Amino acid sequence: MAEVQGWGWQRVHHPEYIEQVLVHFQHSIVTGEPWEDIFPLRSASGQYRWFLSRALPIQDPDGHIVRWFGSNTDITEQREAEEALRKREQELAAAIQVKDDFISIAGHELRTPLTSLKTLFQINQRRMRRGEFIDARHMALQERALVRMERLINDLLDAVRADTRQLEVDCTPTDLVPLCEQVAQDQMLASRRTITLDLAPGPVIVLIDSGRMVQVIGNLLSNALKYSPSNTMVSLCLARDGTDVLVQVIDSGAGIAPSALPHIFDRFYRAPDTQVQHGSSVGLGVGLYLARHLVERQGGTLTVQSTLGVGTTFTVRLPGQNHQDVGVD
Ligand code: ADP
User: Fold this and answer.
1) Cα–Cα–Cα angle for 37, 39, 43, nearest 5°?
2) Residue 328's pLDDT is what?
3) Do residues 258 and 130 lie in contact, with contact meaning Cβ atoms separated by under 8 Å?
4) Is cis: bond before 258, omega within 30 of 0?
5) Judging by beta carbons within 10 Å of its beta carbon (0-12, 13-18, 19+), is residue 166 exposed, middle or buried?
6) 249 in contact with ligand 1, CB cutoff 6 A
7) Is 108 left (phi over 0), alpha (psi -120 to 50) or beta?
8) Which residues of the chain have pLDDT under 70?
9) Where are the beta strands (DSSP E) in the chain?
10) What does the alpha-carbon distance between residue 50 and residue 19 come to, in Å, rounded to a whole number?
11) Spatial distance between the Cα atoms of 187 and 218, rounded to a whole number of angstroms
12) Which residue puts its alpha carbon closest to atom 4 of ligand 1?
C-alpha cells in the first residue's frame, strides 16, 4: 500500500473510519480516479461532524499524480435531516402495517357475529313462513351476536375519541362494592364461569363515572376469563390502601410474555402468542388501551403484573373519597 502522508490528518478522523478512508484513497492513488468519501471528522470542540470529501488528481505530463485538488463539505445537518426522514418513513410504514392489520382483524371480528345473525335470521324467516314459532334460544343467540357487534363498534368509536381526547367522563361519588358485585355477576352470566369476590366492607366511595368504571372492570374481567382455562380461578378484589382504593382482577391463566408487557396498553396491540382459552372472541386490541385511558381520566392508574405460566393481575388504583365529605349515604 502506498504511504499516505500529510499533516497528521489521522488524528481528526474517527478511529472506526480510518481504514475505510485509507482503502478508498489508496484506490484513487493507484487508479488515478477521482476520490470521494463520507466520514466523520473531529472538530475543534472535540465533537465529530460528518464530511463529504472529494478530490481530483492533478497529473504531470507523464501521468504521475503530483497533487490532489478537492473540497471538504460539512454535511452533518443534511445527514441528520436524512436520518430523521428515514426514521419518519419507517414509522409511517409501521403505522400503515398496524392499520392494515387492524382493518383485517376488525373485519374478521365483525364478520363473526354478523354471520351468526344472518344464519339465525334466515332460520327464523323460514320458520315464520311455515307459521312456526321462533325459537327462544335463537333469539338469545341473536341478542348475543348483536351485543357483541355493538361492543366492538362502541370500542372502536371510543378508541378514536380517546385518541382525540374527546371521551367524556362524568364523575360522581360512587360506592364500588355494589358496582363490583354487579359487573362480576354480569360476567359470570355471560361466561358461565365463577368469579371469586374479595370485597372490602362497604361503602368504598370513589369519585368516578360509574358507567365507564363498569366498562373498565368488565373488560379486565372478560380478558381474565378469556385468557385463562375454564378450570382456573378468576378473582375480583376490592381493598383500601391508605387513602387509595385498589380494584384487582387476578387470573391464573397463561400470563403475558415480558417482551409483550411494555406494549400491552398500546392501541390495537395483541400479544403475539396469546391464545384465547375460553369463549370464542379474540378482540380488537383496544380494550386495555381504553381501560387505561378511562382510569386515568378518572384520576387513577391501571397497571399490570404478569408471569408466564402463572397468571396476571391488573390493578386499578383510585384516590379514595371520605364518604362524609361527599355526602353519600
Ligand atoms: P383484546 O380485545 O385483544 O383482548 P385488549 O386490549 O383487551 O385486547 O388486550 C390486549 C392483549 O393483551 C390481548 O390481545 C392479550 O394478548 C393480552 N391480554 C390482556 N389481558 C390478558 C390476560 N388477563 N392474560 C393474558 N393476556 C392478556
Assistant:
1) 130
2) 44
3) no
4) no
5) exposed
6) no
7) alpha
8) 1-7, 276-282, 322-329
9) 35-42, 48-59, 65-74, 172-175, 195-199, 205-208, 234-241, 244-251, 301-307, 311-319
10) 16
11) 7
12) 283
Q: What is the DSSP code (8-state) at residue 305?
A: E
Cell numbers linked to 219: 373488560
Structure confidence at residue 4 (pLDDT):
52
Q: How far apart are the first and last CA of the chain?
A: 92
> What is the predicted pLDDT for the residue at 1?
43
Ligand 1 contacts CB of residue 285 (under 6 A) = yes
CA separation for the pair 103, 148 (Å, rounded): 17
- Verify whether ligand 1 is closer than 6 Å to residue 253 (CB atom): yes
DSSP one-letter code for 9: G
Taking the centre of ligand 1 as the mean of its atom positions, its distance from the CA of residue 224, in whole angstroms, is 8
The count of C-alpha atoms lying within 13 angstroms of the C-alpha of 213, restricted to the half-sphere facing its C-beta, is: 30
Q: Can you give the C-alpha Rg of the chain in angstroms?
A: 32
Residue 284 C-alpha to ligand 1 middle, in angstroms? 9
Report the DSSP pairing between strands 65-74 and 311-319.
unpaired
Residue 66 identity: V
The residues, any chain, with a CB within 8 Å of residue 209's CB and separated by 6 or more, are 169, 170, 171, 172, 294, 297, 298
Assess whether the C-beta atom of 269 lies below 6 angstroms from ligand 1.
yes
For residue 136 the three cell numbers come to: 327462544
What pLDDT does residue 325 have?
A: 47
Please tell me the predicted confidence (pLDDT) of residue 158. 87
Residues contacting 211, CB < 8 A, separation 6+? none
Q: What is the model's pLDDT at position 6? A: 58
Cα distance between residue 10 and residue 22, in whole Å:
10
